[in-house]
Amino acid sequence: MAPEQVMEGMTEVKIPPRDDIAEITRSSRDLPPAHFTYKIENFSLFSSAKIDNVESGDFVVDSYKWRLCLYPDGNKKSKGDGHVSLYLVFSDSNALPFGWEVNVNFRLFIYNQINDKYLTIQYASGRTRRFHGLKTVLGFDHLLPLSIFNDESKGYLIDDRCVFGAEIFVIKPTGKGECLSMVKEPVNSIFTWKIQNFSALDKKSLKSQVFSFGGHKWTLLVYPKGNSTEEGKSLSIFLAMEDSETLPSGRTTYALYMLRVIDQLFGKHFEKEANCHFSNSIKDWGHLNFMPLDDVNALPKGFLVNDTLAVEVQIQGITVAKEFS
Question: Which residues form the MATH domain (predicted)?
């Protein structure tokens, strides 16, 4: 097992390897601890007074009360001799029922006053630890060797002052979830809309009656003379989700579909595929330049019969999301 290393700016200080620190990682960062800072002055007096450990007052994170417990000369009961030992304590002032347990991911800190950085100590790979009635103290017996900590040139203890800290992230399973599935060609997957008196229409856009599939309401949106840059050049067709406002924030419904203009004489339909993640902000999607207006109006082609245009959408696949708890 390779020796553990403490980052000191551009240098590395090696710590002798021990089996019980194999799953601990150390890193350096600029950001101070998010939840609690523990400053200690006249640090040397704690050792000379032969004080075994000191504890901070309670601080609250995620509705639970916590403390920091510091052993200035190391926790000798846990073979922490020659080190500073630091622990996170689940305060006994928490009123919890029998059999309680709290799962957390936490980091402890010690401030380097020369580099203006925080040495961060945590369990490797973001390991989650469990506090319960028989284990209310967790932390690091070998936070930092005293040979490094007491050396003022290393930056951790200057003018007999030092700073520690903690960040605590409580893991609370909510029991809630979401099941996402893809439905291929759902029931009633084809909707056909016949638009009569097509050549006489003077509206810029037309909307079909509402139809349903995949648990949502939809319409077809047609611009007989084209829309935007395709105005006067192309037929524009879109699929629109009429109840998009009912989607929970951040959720989308994906649809893969074929838009089609029916050839009513020869069966040579004109079609284009489209797909979209419909959401609160994206309510319709399709093709501006679906097909040239010259082709639409060319009577021999069979798209416009008795001044009626038949527009169709065929759903090829759609996602369905269901919440569960």
Answer: 33-168, 188-315
C-alpha span between 227 and 217 (Å, rounded): 23
The single-letter code of the amino acid at 57 is: G
* Residue 35 · residue 167 · CB < 8 Å: yes
Task: State the CB neighbour count (10 A cutoff) for residue 171.
Answer: 12
The pLDDT assigned to 127 comes to: 87
Altogether, the residues listed in the chain come to a count of 325
Instruction: State the SS3 of the chain.
Output: CCCEEEEECCEEEEECCCHHHCCEEEEEECCCCCCEEEEECCHHHHHHCCCCCEECCCEEECCEEEEEEEECCCCHHHCCCCEEEEEEEECCCCCCCCCCEEEEEEEEEEEECCCCEEEEEEEHHHCCEEEECCECEEEEEEEEEHHHHCCHHHCCCECCEEEEEEEEEEECCCCCEEEEEEEECCCCCEEEEEECCHHHCCCCCEECCCEEECCEEEEEEEECCCCHHHCCCEEEEEEEECCHHHCCCCCCEEEEEEEEECCCCCCCCEEEEEEEEECCCCCEEEEEEEEEHHHHHCHHHCCEECCEEEEEEEEEEEEEEEEEC
Beta bridge partners of 167: 107
The predicted model scores a pTM of: 0.60
Distance CA 116, CA 13 (A): 17
pLDDT means per 10 residues in the chain (325 residues)? 43 41 83 96 86 94 96 92 95 90 96 97 89 94 95 96 97 83 85 95 94 92 96 97 91 95 95 96 96 93 95 94 80
Check if the beta carbon of residue 220 is closer than 8 Å to that of residue 311.
Answer: yes
Per-residue model confidence (pLDDT) at position 66: 97
Residue with tokens 């690091």: 140
Q: What is the pLDDT of residue 10?
A: 32
